[in-house]
Amino acid sequence: MGHCRVKVHLRLRPSCRPSTAIHVDHAAHTIRIDVLKQHGGGPPKPYNDQMVFPFDSIIQSSCQEAVFEQCARQVVEDVLGGYNGTILTYGQTGSGKTFTMTGDTKAYAHRGIVPRAVERIFAEKVAKPEAGITVHVSYLEVYNEGIYDLLPQRRLASAVNLVAMEDNGLIEIKGLNKMHVNTEEEAMKYFFEGERHRSVAPHALNQMSSRSHCVFTMFVERHSGLRTLQEVTSSKLNLVDLAGSERLKRTEVGGTTKKEAMLINKSLSFLEQAVFALRQGLGHVPFRQSRLTTLLKDALGGNCKTVLIVCAWAEDFFLDETISALRFAQRVKYLKTSAVINKKADAANTQRRYVREISELKQELALRDALTGRPSISYDELTEETRSALRERIQAFLAEEAGIDSIPIENFKQVKELFCLFKEAQVSLRGELEKLLRDYGGGPDTFLNHSQHDVDINPGSEEADDEECVGELDKEACF
Ligand SMILES: Nc1ncnc2c1ncn2[C@@H]1O[C@H](COP(=O)(O)OP(=O)(O)OP(=O)(O)O)[C@@H](O)[C@H]1O
Fold it and tell me: Where does the Kinesin motor domain lie (predicted)?
């Protein structure tokens, strides 16, 4: 098991009013914020306090391709290698989370991490047909503290609030549709179908503001491709577009949108609490406090390789929001996960191996029989013919026909069959005796009451019968 630190990148949204307080050092991967402070009611002294936040990388004016290469590519490669991966975007409303994750559909070059990840996974599937890669996708949203499937097979199903459960140490959503997809186009078709069902609403800072946290997941199964050591890796890539935190007086919302904003802020503060508890090494981490933290449990501390992309709006007007996002990022930066390659035996290959082993064992037995001078013995299932020949022999044996004083044993399958046939004979004999007793005027009760003492047709238990049979058989057995 490899412990790996969560990688944290910062993406600054381009602005026509860039903040004079924000300074990026690209070489050192740090951002410095010079904070204005008031002293003793006097005039504000600019830049008398500085905060420096280190990141794994800071992206300021890079294109979408560079963002994918810098932040997401390695996680997608790790998922193809059998690890679970999660990429999350986090930040205030309108800061560019959806732009980073989904992209802008107006221009192909503006496509985001999701379409690029899908493209990379299917490129691998096409390039390595021997790996037999299979892909399923799911798409859900956490809206107002409920989990909803964005890919309902029937439209009615969209209203069902799903349950997140822990299964084998990993979080699973019971009843979530997982669509099998063969091509990049099919996967994107489902992604766009889910996008249509997402909850969005306009407000002062964003015309298409996400009102829910969305998770698009790709489940990838891949065969090792080595004939002798064939196994399957089974991994998943979670692409998470979190809803943005918002200050209600800035977004100027009311009614449903206000209620949504309050629930978004609440779930994000639960996320901060969970991250704080993990960072402090507290014994109890409150993952169960909200649907979002339950969903992100693996990503924050479990079997997963995780990347967080913090999006920020680098304008003076939003300095408070930016500082609080940067602080959150610093806590996440120190979280460690325990990612392992998720291997399992290939069921089809295991079956093929057993068939081969059985065939080899049969050959071994045949060779041993030949060397010890035994007649050729079949170890296959008994045929109907063999069965009726055995039945006849048992009847002759029980009837004490001349010359039939033993039943030769050939193999274990035959022994099992003999027990069944003896039982069959015994049941038939018992039926005949009951009939005889009835004909002589006694009912079955008479038979049952006296059979143990007077008519000794069934001494001891069935097991004892079987043992006796074995004893008899053993005397003559010629293994
Ligand atoms: N880096 C960027 N380059 C160009 N345009 C951007 C960038 N980031 C964001 N935008 C634009 O800003 C607007 C808001 O961005 P986006 O919807 O991605 O914000 P968001 O963080 O997802 O907001 P919300 O939390 O409200 O959903 C969009 O029109 C988007 O195209």
Answer: 5-335
